[in-house]
Amino acid sequence: MLILIQSLIYFFYTQIQLNSIIMKSTDLCFPLDHIPLTVNIVIKEEFIPEKKWTIVKNSKDYPEFVKDFIKKFGSIDTVNVSDKPTLESIVQSYADIVELSWILHSQWVNITK
Fold it and tell me: Which of 24, 56, 58, 97 has minimal Cβ neighbours within 10 Å of its Cβ?
């Protein structure tokens, strides 16, 4: 037989400068065998950008972006890939084309929070 017992979780936020650890306070046992747990989580300050480069969904820029780099892909000679330096040059050409197309067609927009 399965017996479901409701449980409560209490959160207390403090400014303790400790490493992330979990401590069981077994000496503080409550009814129904509840044991308090203490968890210290270190939160580091981090830069979170408010803007990013993007192509806005359903904008005319996306088809133009795709059309632009597909057209330029056709200009890369891939007939004679005979060695590693040639292959690396071709791959770099593809990357440069996509990057340039991205720069031309993307916009600097606010990130929705």
Answer: 58
pLDDT tens digit sequence for 3-36? 555 666 666 565 555 444 555 555 555 555 566 6
Please, what is the angle between helix 61-73 and helix 84-105, to 10°? Answer: 160
Which residues have a Cβ under 8 Å from the Cβ of 42 and sit 6 or more positions away?
17, 18, 19, 20
Distance CA 37, CA 7 (A): 14
Span 56-96, pLDDT tens digits: 878 888 888 889 888 998 888 888 888 999 999 999 999 99
Q: Taking a C-beta distance cutoff of 8 angstroms, is the pair 29, 35 a contact? A: yes
Asked if 105 and 55 count as a contact pair (C-beta separation under 8 A), the reply is yes
Nearest to 61 by CA among 102, 108, 109: 102
109: tokens are: 């927009």
Residue 26 near residue 43 (C-beta atoms within 8 A): no
